[in-house]
Amino acid sequence: MPGAGAVSAPVGPSATTVTPASTASRRNAELGLLVFALAVALAAFATLGLGVDGAVPARIGSYAAGFGGLLLVAHLALRRFAPYADPVLLPAVALLNGIGLVMIYRLDIAEAASAERAGRPAPAPDALSQITWTALGVVLFVAVLVLVRDHRGLQRFTYTAMAAGLVLLLLPLVPGLGTRIFGAQIWIRVGPFSFQPGEVAKIALTIFFAGYLVLKRDVLALARRRVLGVDLPRMRDLGPIVVVWLVCLGILVFERDLGTAVLFFGSFVMLLYVATERRSWLILGTLMVLAGGWLAYQAFAHVRTRIDIWLDPFADPQGAGFQLVQGLYGLAAGGLLGSGLGQGRPDLIPVAKTDFIVDALGEELGLTGLMALLLLYGIVVERGLRTAIAARDSFGTLLAAGLSFILAIQVFVVVGGVTRLIPLTGLTTPFLSYGGSSLVANWALVALLLRISDAARRPAPPPVPETQEALTQVVRR
């Protein structure tokens, strides 16, 4: 992939051969895909009702009207404010969001049934809250499209975004404001409302990374010495990556948030590689991750616990390893084709609506359904990276690549953790997991990707004839 410095002109035919007819065709294709996404979500909802009660849920009409109306609003906003944007991104994330809503509703039913068997009052359902957060996410999606008419304007806020991102990351450490949930102090609570500021910080810091690397990519690409076959830049140019490494390590230490540390550091190293095209940054980043992980393992008990559970969750299946073991049992019970929506016991998996929703889906949809979901995420990331390649400016290239890397790394970290490929980190699955902070922030992230895509696919203005240009200059004088 070309480096950021190489992107200065339209790339590919889509940048120069767009016509009104092709634009209308693209928007119609997007609408068709949105209808397909809604149909799949409704089919899953109906299947869930048939699996649980033997009848289609009575609420399917209100679900279709509510979720379908939100998708129509998003589509009309995109047609109005970004008509040349990628037609696949919005339907893909809409389908993920719809499946997440169905699974959260399914877990609500399972929790209510468990409470009834135990003689306890049923807990408050979360599906209604999630559809409310989806509505807020779509509102923010539209707001980003309306307010950010040119993504290049965000480059002016490079250091402002850095300051905002760091403040957001530090907010959970403020006494009386931050709150600890499941051992991690990554939430802030104001009255009855809680919010995870790190979800917004990931977008702000990606804007900072992209803006900073546009300015410094040439310096960071210089190699002054070779050590063990690896080209290393000057020591003073290692400063940014060392600072980011220390910030991520601080997040891990003080907030016990391994997932966010991996997410930020990994996305920054990948952007360094895209900007400079030097593999040495990937090697240095990997070495620093290993060094930071080893130091954290030696110094902090909660990190050692995570690693020990990963190495052998069955050493304490009823204690520290209970969550992971139950998730693995759920995946095993699902097998190749799954038990069917409404037919399994995903409620036996702790916090299945957030950290372990992938295992809950794997139990009822099987390996086949889980692979389809991962393929859907792959499509989202691929379209984001395609947008990065097609962008006409260096900042757009790096910003689109960074946002795509965030989604890719987050999905890898979540799925790798719940399947025991890597240690658990506690991140939520984008668009699937229950939680307003993640859902709203990810809708804003997709809006930024679509804004960059619209600029990349928009036809270039026709060249001004030389005589007219000369006349214009005379008039201006």
Automatic annotation (TrEMBL):
Membrane disposition: Multi-pass membrane protein
Protein's GO biological process: cell division; regulation of cell shape
Membrane-crossing residue ranges in chain numbering: 31-52, 58-76, 88-107, 127-148, 160-188, 200-215, 235-252, 258-274, 281-300, 365-385, 397-419, 431-450
This protein's pathway: Cell wall biogenesis; peptidoglycan biosynthesis
Domain of life: Bacteria
Predominant location category: membrane
Enzyme category, top tier: transferase
Keyword Nucleus: no
Cellular localization per UniProt: Membrane
Pfam families: FTSW_RODA_SPOVE
Disordered, as annotated region: 1-20
UniProt catalytic activity: [GlcNAc-(1->4)-Mur2Ac(oyl-L-Ala-gamma-D-Glu-L-Lys-D-Ala-D-Ala)](n)-di-trans,octa-cis-undecaprenyl diphosphate + beta-D-GlcNAc-(1->4)-Mur2Ac(oyl-L-Ala-gamma-D-Glu-L-Lys-D-Ala-D-Ala)-di-trans,octa-cis-undecaprenyl diphosphate = [GlcNAc-(1->4)-Mur2Ac(oyl-L-Ala-gamma-D-Glu-L-Lys-D-Ala-D-Ala)](n+1)-di-trans,octa-cis-undecaprenyl diphosphate + di-trans,octa-cis-undecaprenyl diphosphate + H(+)
Molecular function in Gene Ontology: lipid-linked peptidoglycan transporter activity; peptidoglycan glycosyltransferase activity
A GO CC term assigned to this protein in UniProt: cell division site
EC number: 2.4.99.28
Swiss-Prot/TrEMBL keywords: Cell shape, Membrane, Transmembrane, Transmembrane helix
PANTHER family linked: CELL CYCLE PROTEIN (PTHR30474), PEPTIDOGLYCAN GLYCOSYLTRANSFERASE RODA (PTHR30474:SF3)
Protein name: peptidoglycan glycosyltransferase
Source organism: Vallicoccus soli
